[in-house]
Amino acid sequence: MPPRSLVLSAASLCAGGLAVLVYFHDSDLVLLREHLNHPFALGALACLLMALAAAGLRWMWLRVVIVLLSGLGMSVALFGGWMALAFSSTAEVGFVDGPDPYRIRLQRSLAGLGPDTVMWLSVRRDAGLLSREWDLGCFNDDVPDDALDSVTWTGPGSVEIRVVDGRTFPIALDPASGRPLTTAALNC
Fold first, then answer.
1. SS (H, E, C) 38-87
2. What is the pLDDT of residues 42-81, one digit of tens each?
3. Distance, CA of 179 to CA of 169 (rounded, Å)
């Protein structure tokens, strides 16, 4: 096997391993969460690299089999990515600034195929490349009283989330890391 095929095979295995890792493990680092959280694209890249690596194989039948399986895998990965993008895309709503270095991120997404929406809240601790973000809560408005009304900082390490019917969810943050000690969820 030529060295080019070996390098492409190794790169394909790395891309495939990264795709599996990203799919099953959600990172707290904002850099990884926002820029490398594309398991379907990484899977398609792994299949493409494996098909390119097969071009250097000596046996024609093995080359054809690997290229066909890689093409099938790439098609499945692209279709899965398209479906995930269609049904789980989120739109940025904004941020609620808190005591430095914290802020709360608000995102909105559709809840399945229905007209109701889900509001996702997460708390972010800004630290440049080492910024971290943790889930704070999610609120589905399929029951109108459960929709998110407001989120406010009640102290340097505490947040209060209010829903439309007046219920409140106080959440404390770990003083050392900034990670929420509890989360809140309604119909998610």
1. CHHHHHHHHHHHHHHHHCCCCCHHHHHHHHHHHHHHHHHHHHHHHHHHHH
2. 899 999 999 988 887 788 888 888 889 999 999 999 998 8
3. 16
Tell me the C-alpha distance between 141 and 150, whole Å: 14
Dihedral of CA 158/176/126/147: which sign? negative
Q: What is the pTM of this model?
A: 0.69
CB 53 within 8 A of CB 69: no
| Tokens found for residue 141 | 């408005």
CA distance linking residue 40 with residue 131, whole number of Å = 25
Q: φ, ψ for residue 62 (rounded to 5)?
A: -70, -35
CB atoms within 10 A of CB 21: 13
Domain coordinates of the chain in residue numbers?
A: 3-88, 90-186
